[in-house]
Amino acid sequence: MFEIAVNGACGRMGARIAALAWEDPEVKLVAAVERPGHQSLGKDVGSVSGCGDTGIKITPSLTVQADVLIDFSSPESTIAIAEVCANKKIALVVGTTGLNIRQHEKLQSFSQVIPCLVSPNMSVGVNIMFNLVAQVARMTEKEFDIEIVETHHRFKKDAPSGTALRLAEKICEATGREMGRDVVYGRSGIAGERPADQIGIHAVRSGDVVGDHTVVFGSLGERIEITHKAHTRDTFVRGAIRAAKFIAKKSPGMYRMSDVLQIRS
Description:
By secondary structure, the chain is an alpha/beta fold. The chain has helices at residues 12-23, 45-49, 75-88, 101-110, 124-140, 162-175, 179-182, 234-247, 257-260; strands at residues 2-7, 27-33, 58-59, 68-71, 91-94, 115-118, 145-152, 183-185, 199-205, 211-219, 222-230, 253-255. Helix 1 crosses helix 8, helix 3 runs parallel beside helix 4 and helix 5 packs parallel to helix 6 (162-175).
């Protein structure tokens, strides 16, 4: 049995991680961490996650040992808790999006002492999609225009989504494009004729959409669309718990969901 801690336990994702971890017979929930000053500090995490009395109080810091900590919080909180995990030798699963280059570098440095799994999307389907779009991009080469459209709920803070960016990265890796040179984020005004190497990313925010991603490969006379739609946040939660079980006893290093799913490019 693996002992799991959750950071950002009162957030939309954190609460579901706590609930599903509590129900999973293969893991034991041992800690629920939330930012200092949060109104739910001191409460039983079950009162937030809806899984009843757990005996686990929500705390502003990680005071117990665990095998793995799962984090879906904010970039700043992620880096802070990652340092704690490195000091305590606790494996780390990160699903936080909006991390900048410096923050990714910090996580990379922590991965030298603990196993870290960082993924913008923990769902099995999306990680299969990452592999598929790379294959299609290689096969279509420069004959097809490539556009990425992502839709999320109105409360999402970062745009474009981390998943959309990872889709673009996979396409760039497969075709020799460069993120900084060939990717554009929306268009307006007299944009001119579309360059052949360009990848467009478009972010839509609407209502309570959990997460939709579509990659469009368009040529003259035909179009290929690869779409993934998440119906519930539990999709990501189950993937994160699966990742936690995978990484719990691994050696220090940086891992991806493709390692968990044994997806080979």
